[in-house]
Specification:
Two copies of one chain form a homodimer.
Chain A: E1 10-15, H1 21-33, E2 50-55, H2 70-92, E3 100-108, H3 111-123, H4 125-132, H5 138-146, E4 159-162, E5 165-169, E6 172-173, H6 179-186, E7 190-196, E8 202-209, H7 213-220
């Protein structure tokens, strides 16, 4: 958690657009699912996070009503951009974080199962400590994919990219992949992980950070 | 995980009793659910754990057939005792572990929901680092109870004991509880946590350890 003694995260986004009340509620849900609800530092959901979207109507536009209209989509995209920047800032500020990880899961049957696999990777202490060590430990990531709760996942169909490097496919290490390539990808402070599930057209991205000595220090020594 | 480069955990238990094959399978499942399947160090399930129960029949007893008979229960209790000692030994040997935690969840509607709440507590990095710090952080434990996935849990009914001390009830800190009592309970290397859900008669116990600097060290520096 980020501020365990506070209220814990309160997010406010305001727009001058005129938007119907129910439409605004749909929009904030759409945005939260793709920003604040897909970040995690340690998997510990706080008891009292809030995201509030306020529309003053001062822009004088014809009131936006109903999800899926062109106006809804345009405004939702803008609000989402703001929300993602804010949500990612929470991860970058994660306790002891030294690496920022974007985990994209593609080829799922539903967005929900992609989020589930992404969070399984993001919550694995073994994955998080490997990223802290800048170690391209493919087994730990693939193991977390397998622990993502998709009972009928076909391991032969799973692909794994670190950055732009294909590191695993067809149930094993990718042909031509060398650990030097993996190490080069793991060195920077921002790393993209891409998992293909090979069973559908849905995708989702989850953002997280690594797990360092300082995570333990901050969360164990906070009262001394 | 305990030996990430090996096969990973192979458990073998043998008895001279004569037991039918299907009955033996029922017994090993019964035992695994109450021993190896309720321990966790970091929530990272390995890909290839096995528990094998072997019955030679050399004891010459009338063959035990069928779950729930007196003979089945007597043998199952003995095998369970062996399995729990072995399973708990894995936790005591957990990477960087300084504390051994027994988490008992009572008053659930099903054993499964009790296991789920127990594992939610056992997997919370915030709970695990608080135990490393010997800090009686009630909020972190109660938060993990709330994250245990019981949608209609009534927080007013939840009780929390650390050792024999009632620390929380009726949605708040227990009357008369002092932090000095909590700190005294947190000091030893073995700690019992007891959660009451107040909604049924089922219970389950999960065993885990704390989360220390050395967990990160062992899992980040393992290749250097």
């Amino acid at each position: 958690m980020i501020q365990p003694n506070m209220a814990t995260m309160l997010g406010f986004i305001a727009t001058d657009a005129a938007v119907g009340r129910d439409t605004l509620q749909d929009m904030v849900r759409h945005v939260a699912e793709r920003s604040f609800n897909v970040i995690t530092v340690d998997g510990d959901t706080s008891t009292n996070d809030s995201l509030v979207l306020i529309a003053t109507g001062r822009a004088g536009n014809p009131k936006i009503l109903g999800e899926g209209t062109a106006e809804f989509n345009r405004l939702a995209d803008c609000v989402l951009e703001v929300a993602q920047v804010l949500a990612q800032a929470i991860v970058r500020d994660g306790e002891g974080a030294t690496k920022f990880l974007s985990i994209t899961v593609e080829g799922g049957r539903t967005r929900e199962e992609c989020v589930r696999v992404g969070k399984s990777i993001a919550h694995s202490p073994l994955v998080k400590t490997a990223f802290f060590a800048s170690d391209p430990n493919l087994g730990r990531i693939l193991c977390a994919v397998g622990n993502g709760g998709i009972a009928d996942l076909d391991p032969e169909m799973v692909t794994l990219h670190l950055g732009s490097v294909l590191v695993a496919e067809k149930g094993g290490r990718a042909a031509g992949y060398t650990e030097e390539q993996g190490k080069a990808v793991m060195a920077p402070a921002e790393i993209a992980i891409r998992v293909g599930l090979g069973r559908g057209d849905e995708s989702a991205t989850v953002w997280t950070c690594d797990f360092s000595y300082d995570y333990v220090k901050i969360n164990a020594d906070y009262r001394s």
